[in-house]
Amino acid sequence: METRVALISIIVEDIEAAESINRLLHENRQYIIGRMGLPYREKGISIISVAIDGPMNAISALSGKLGAIPGVSTKTVYSKAQEDK
């Protein structure tokens, strides 16, 4: 199965969304390389970056589910397709 490396950027404007976000990330933990969360208290938001290596359909499904949570915005950037080295 071909996998891609991607970065999912998440902006959380509603702290109540944290439980749903963490549940989805936990369900997809087998693809997650690492994550970093930054609370931006002055603006009342949190910024989360998730590095992921998985099948395209799993990455896009996760990003879509995260973006569907009220108070959450996402954007995903993918690595260029790579041939086996």
Outline the fold blueprint.
Elements (H helix, E strand, L loop, with lengths): L3 E9 L5 H10 L4 E9 L4 E10 L1 H12 L4 E7 L7
Antiparallel strand pairs: 1-3, 1-4, 2-3
CATH H level, superfamily name: ACT-like. Chain A, domain 2
> In percent terms, what proportion of residues is strand?
35-45%
Mean pLDDT: 94
Q: How many strands appear in the DSSP assignment?
A: 4
Percent helix, as a range, is 25-40%
**CATH top level class name:** Alpha Beta
What's the story with the biggest beta sheet?
Answer: 4 strands, antiparallel
Secondary-structure content class:
alpha+beta
Global geometry: elongated
**What is the gyration radius calculated from CA atoms?**
13 Å
Tally of DSSP helical segments: 2
**Low-confidence spans:** none
What letter string, H or E per element, gives the SSE order? EHEEHE
Distance between the termini: 15 Å
**Widest beta sheet: strand line-up:** 2-3-1-4
CATH topology: Alpha-Beta Plaits
How many separate structural domains? Answer: 1
Q: If classified by CATH, what would the architecture be? A: 2-Layer Sandwich
